[in-house]
Amino acid sequence: MANKYDVIIIGGGISGCAVAWKLAHYNLKILLVEKEADVATGTTKANTAIIHAGYNADPDKLKGRLNVKGNEQIKEISKKLNVPFREIGSLVVGLQNDNLKVIDQLYAKGKENKVKNMKIVDRKWLRENEPNISPKAVKALWAPTAGIITPWEFALAMAQNAVANGAEVKLETAVLDIITDSDQVKGVKTNQGDFYADYVVNAAGLYADEIAQLVGIEKIKITPRKGEYYIYDQAKDFAVNHVIFPVPTPISKGIVVTPTVENNLLIGPTSEKVASKQDLATTRSGLLEVISGAKKLYPDLDLKDTIRVFAGLRAADETEDFVIEAAPHLKGFINVAGIQSPGLSSATAIADFTVEIMEAQGLKLSEKKEVIETRPEPVRFYEMTNQARASLISKNKDYGQIICRCETVSYQEIIDAIHGPVGARTVNAVKRRTRAGAGRCQGGFCGPRVVEIIAHELGIDPTEVKQEEANSNILEYKIKELLGKKVIENA
Amino acid sequence: MHKLEKKLVIIGGGPAGLAAAKTAFDKGITDILILERDFELGGILPQCIHNGFGLHHFKEELTGPEYAQRFINDVAERAIEIKLNTMVLDVKENKKVYAVNKTEGFFEIQAAAVILAMGCRERTAGAIGIPGTRPAGVITAGTAQRYTNIEGYLPGKEVVILGSGDIGLIMARRLKLEGANVKAVCELLPYTGGLTRNVVQCLEDYDIPLLLNHTVTGIKGNGRLKAVEISEVDKNLKPIPDTAKIIKADTLLLSVGLIPENELSKKANVVLDQRTGGPIVNEGRETNIPGIFACGNVLHVHDLVDWVTEEAEIAASWAVKYIKKDFLKETAAIKVKAGQNVSYVIPQKIELQADDRKKIPLYMRVSQPLTAVNINLFADGEKLYSFSEPFAKPGEMISIPLAQKTLAQHENLQEISVEIVEKEGE
């Protein structure tokens, strides 16, 4: 049967993509369904983009167990999948008048979680290694195994590798119901038809509780917790060398200052429970909180070069821990829910743990003979040497036509993004894959070109090209369309 | 990688680059290359299909495309070499230019002189940090202008515009003519940012409400924009909470300022002026790097293209002199200072000597708008002379001449300064 699979995964965020990636190593027919037009459009696209070392969570929580494991796996996996990961280390920076004991407590917790190579560093060390840090910084916990990654690229790379190993990814496919037969899960009903499998993984992120409720599971309760951020233009003018945390309070890890893999500077997040899973609005008070938090660590940081503000929602479960378990009364239905921070850091460990649970449920795992372990590295014209650029263009001239001037993205990179595995269908999907439109003009110049290219390549009208979601068309009308009647009347 | 040599490389084929090419050619440097990143020449002018261009330079009223075409024709008549669809990736202090295009790949050009004419970009929603969601339908006015006038599509039909820069004013009228409902133009300041004539001809003539001292305090809607929240602001430009109002809109255009595009200039170690966002130049529009000149919106944002043309002519004339080694530099530059109520003056210094100079035009903008003003010039604090103007507003650049003989009369001059103040007794 064409629509019969071994495993169906609901949700193309970091967790769903990781599970698909892992399962595609085995002789299994895998389907990942995602309701949006791209993977990584929920929590995965709007977070702090950090691979935590693992000293934050309690050792008795899943968070505590899986973070360190995920952190240890990331180096090798990111290399195989060609996802840029920079192990720049993190600092929890104590200022004068902070409760500096917390730093020692975190160190102790990190030891328990088996975080490697942590050190307590002093004022002198901080001066030398973080020259712009506040003069009030006196002590810090240095965790050299922490790092930064581009979360949506990590998710995408896992989805693409899964596809290379035979998995299917269906976008714009929303689950409407779960098909069951007495105490056995049998598949999913979607807006694109029914798909069958004896194993269904619920990795629906913010909506994991709603999917769980479809099969009568009430214990998962996702309360979205909003985090607001600023992004700065290229960070080279203001050095921040590590992921910088303030001393946490009992309720929050606080406002982080960190470079991103692409050399932007990211500051945030706030932490605020909100009622709606669609409340992605930044607020005046939230943005002020971000600025004042960042300024405590970096008093000289000014706001002149910010290029974007955004908000993301953490898919936090009431238990404040990951909920990764088989449904007690429905065989084959596995929840991967409540994946808030450090979900990104734990992604591959979450996948391992989920697969173990499935195996315990009876899923037969036999490794494929020829697994494709790597993802071909996408062309990143902006970071190539001039020599490499010259030789690339001599092979394919279309890499010589620059579409996005701020981030130096070529025409062919956009074509690759659209026609590659799990291809881009929207303006934001092109941006996530290529950085076209992610720079200082925010798509002011390349936007019209990108819309034109997407329309041409997908064979649709420019008025049908979307920014991201279903109702996010960039252009609403052709010129003169609004005048239709009047033009005729006046003629 | 192939390598070229050119006497003069001009980066940017907009109005500044085109006028510079024409002038340089006519003054005897014919080995010129224009590098343009877009598929056609003219810069932003092809999308400016409204009239009002050329009143100073040609003494007649042209549309943007017509104004551009005159210079495109001039360049074509002179058979000046142009590379379209060509992106300059790097410029070095030694005037090596690195560029890329589809037909020739990656190449290097050694220039004797370089004119920077890359123009400017628009400030974005992110740069001003408007709270709210990030839906489709929030775009800069210039991008909307491109969609409408070049691509043939409308961003939406219920429009609010933030900022009263010229492009925002022009787009208010343009979208109204297309049948859109332009509900309001909000301006944070107590006065408009654009030209007076655009306020009259684009807003008043079409009954489009102009809300001074107002700003957008919220963006609402996931997917496509649903509404914006606007609020009145107090004297410190802070929103007054009780005044917030929701306006239903599917489109928010931003006309909140232009930023000279100097990423390449920085690569060549060109020093920028914090106030203009463009290079610090002398009266020949030469930057701190000998032989690298700048003109047009890359140097400072202009309101009239006519001034861009004049500035390009100045830059090109001096680039030609530079190539021909036809001028001397003073040992000590005379500083040009923006005094009371002046936000900036171009050039920032005077340091060139040549026989054919009579007058040096000083370009400036007022900080706060005033009616009935005196523009006073000082040489080392001593008043030289005054010009009267009926009004001065930040959106309209002022050009006043500085006579070279005045400079000659003052020995060891350190500083020229300009102030724009209310006329006494009025």
Automatic annotation (TrEMBL), chain A:
Which residue intervals define the domain FAD dependent oxidoreductase in the entry? 6-356
Show where the BFD-like [2Fe-2S]-binding domain sits. Answer: 402-455
- Report which superkingdom the organism of origin falls in: Bacteria
Which Pfam family, any one, appears in the UniProt record? DAO
Matches recorded under InterPro entries: BFD-like_2Fe2S-bd_dom, BFD-like_2Fe2S-bd_dom_sf, FAD-dep_OxRdtase, FAD/NAD-bd_sf, G3P_Oxidase/Oxidoreductase
Q: What is this protein called?
A: Glycerol-3-phosphate dehydrogenase
TrEMBL record, chain B:
Q: Which Gene3D superfamilies match?
A: FAD/NAD(P)-binding domain
InterPro entries assigned to the protein according to its UniProt record, in alphabetical order: FAD/NAD-bd_sf, FAD/NAD-binding_dom, Metab_Enz_Cyan_OpOx_G3PDH
| Oxidoreductase is among the record's keywords | yes
Keyword list (alphabetical) reads: Oxidoreductase
Q: Where is the FAD/NAD(P)-binding domain?
A: 7-300
Q: What is this protein called?
A: Thioredoxin reductase
Q: Does the keyword Oxidoreductase apply?
A: yes
MF annotations from Gene Ontology: oxidoreductase activity
